[in-house]
Amino acid sequence: MEGIMLFRIVKLSMFLISLTLASSRGSQVVFMVADRNTGKPLPCQIYLKDKTGKPVQAEGLPFWHDHFVSSGHSELKLSPGQYTYEIDRGPEYFIHTGSFLVTEEAVTKVAVKLERFVNMSGHGWWSGDFHVHRPASDIELLMQAADLHIAPVITWWNNKSQWANRQLTAQPLVSFDKNRYYHLLAGEDEREGGALLYFNLTKPLAITEATREFPSPLEFLAEARKYKGVWVDVEKPFWWDVPLWLASGQVDSIGLANNHMCRDSMHETEAWGKPRDMKRLEPPRGNGFWTQEIYYHLLNCGLRIPPSAGSASGVLPNPVGYNRVYVYLGKSPSYGQWWEGLRAGRCFVSNGPLLMCQANERLPGHVFMAKDEKALKIEIQGFLTTRDPISSIEVIKNGKVEYTVPFEKSKKPHKLAVLGFKESGWFLVRAITDNPKTFRFASTAPYYVEIGDTKRRISRSSAQFFLNWARERAARIQLDDPIQKEKVTQYHTLAEKFWIDLLAKANAD
Fold first, then answer.
1. Is residue 451 located within the same domain as residue 494?
2. Same domain, 184 and 326
3. 252 Cβ partners below 8 Å, 6+ apart?
4. What is residue 248's predicted lDDT score, i.e. its pLDDT?
5. In this structure, how many other beta carbons lie within 10 angstroms of the beta carbon of residue 209?
6. In what order do the strands lie in the sheet with 67-70?
7. Domain tally for the chain?
8. Nearest residue to 422 via CA among 507, 306, 301
């Protein structure tokens, strides 16, 4: 893992060397970005490139990978030549593209009006990004430029902590713009088995001395559970320790829209996670389908864990807010209510399309209950807006595509499908765009169905899937110290027992 991280750092350093840097020398260029409806300056992300295609970094403005953020009015000096740009403000706005020529004789003014085509908060949906590695001093402008409302800021990560030589903040939760919130004590335990994200703690966990395999991440997870209001997120479904974490019953969400999915590309392998069948799930989008398959196996085991989303801006190429989770709160949001809504599963995840669905006028996360199959009929209505081409909307029932509905542009919700259930199970709605470079999609959280006395459907094949995985993971443990190995192995032994017991309770194929 350390080798992979070093490779990322070296690769990023080489990339930064190749940037075109706007400096005090050159001709003046002024970007003026406003809201088309109000005319007011609009914070935004600006992807500016010179004639060779190199990203331009604007001096004094927050920059990452291939873009800088602006308050809506920004001035920079550029060498004469041709430039192209994209201006973005997240998935609720149309992207504006253009080009301009810089000369030595005149000031170049780029005036743009961004158009919002859907107001999600106006519909009661409020967005968050779980994985932010950007400086706290920039976070407010970064959130405004992405039109993001919730952002835990990761300030401790393995052996690095911004609090090592500083006094902890007494007020880690910061509110601004009336309805935007960020928390300054989020952290990440990322080692041999993968990554867990921790939110809403009052101080960092003592993980700085941990090695790749010791101690078990479950020891830190147990410590975190002592804090009221803590939230633990499985950062990606394919990390090796996922069967271990699920068996513990101590995780709150799982990253369905994760940072392997980037704005203009995909990370095509599972890094140090459980590899997929590359022939069946081909690059570049195979990792996205593998992520969803694992999540469906989880749901088929009767586990009810809502999906989450994270971009890893500051480590991977994404801007803040690229992968996001929308939670339904209505018109009076608060930070605490947002987490409560997520726990209830009233959410959907997206890195592009915006998918608002109801089933029998109920939001995602709802549990439908009936005495028998004849007593339950579920009509699904949906409303999808997208900036990318998209062919269809899919209804997933118990892990398989039940309906494929041709996508039709509409300004209001319309009927997608009518579902029946003969036994307990679950369903959700997803939409995958036709973007060939990356896995761009939206997915609701699951709805659940309970028929008769059987409260949860437990699939034999899915339980076996995780049991096999748990055994394979345990066999990978490499620790020379026998005492350390015994301490770590005991957790994997308990996880194996959990999946054996669940397999014995299976009531479906």
1. no
2. yes
3. 231, 232, 233, 305, 306, 343
4. 98
5. 8
6. 63-64, 67-70, 44-49, 81-88, 96-102
7. 4
8. 507
Residue 58 domain boundaries = 19-114
Token reading at 484: 């350390």
Q: Give the separation between CA 452 and CA 468, rounded to whole angstroms.
A: 31
In this structure, is residue 10 part of a structural domain?
A: no
Edge-first strand listing for the sheet containing 73-78:
73-78, 27-35, 108-114
User: Residue 22: its pLDDT value, please?
Assistant: 55
Q: Report strand pairing: 150-157 vs 180-191.
A: parallel
Residue whose structure tokens are 């030595």: 104
- Which sign does the torsion angle of CA 187, 189, 194, 198 carry? negative
Our CA angle for 488, 221, 350, nearest 5°, is: 115
Which of 98, 114, 130 delimits the end of a domain? 114
Residues 468 and 406 in one domain: no
**Does residue 322 sit in the same domain as residue 222?**
yes
Residue 20: what pLDDT?
A: 54
Rounded CA separation 408/152 (Å): 36
Measure the CA–CA gap between 399 and 396, rounded to whole angstroms: 6
Beta-bridge mates of residue 114: 35
Task: Give the Cα separation of 234 and 327 in Å (integer).
Answer: 18
SS3 217: helix
CA pair distance 442, 445, nearest whole angstrom:
10
Pairing of strands 67-70, 63-64: antiparallel
Euclidean distance between CA atoms 107 and 119, whole angstroms? 35
Q: Which pLDDT belongs to residue 21?
A: 54
Of 440, 457, 474, at which residue does a domain stop? Answer: 457
Distance (Å, whole) CA 229 – CA 214: 26
Q: Which structure tokens are listed for 146?
A: 């992405």
Asked if residue 173 and residue 108 are part of one domain, the reply reads no
CB atoms within 10 A of CB 267: 17
CA-closest candidate to residue 221, choices 229, 230, 212, 210: 230
The DSSP bridge pattern shows strands 253-257 and 307-309 to be parallel
pTM score, two decimals? 0.94
Question: Are 445 and 308 in contact, with CB atoms under 8 Å apart?
Answer: no
Shared-domain flag, residues 149 and 186: yes
Using CA atoms, how far apart are residues 304 and 403, in angstroms rounded to an integer? 22
pLDDT < 70 regions, the chain: 1-25
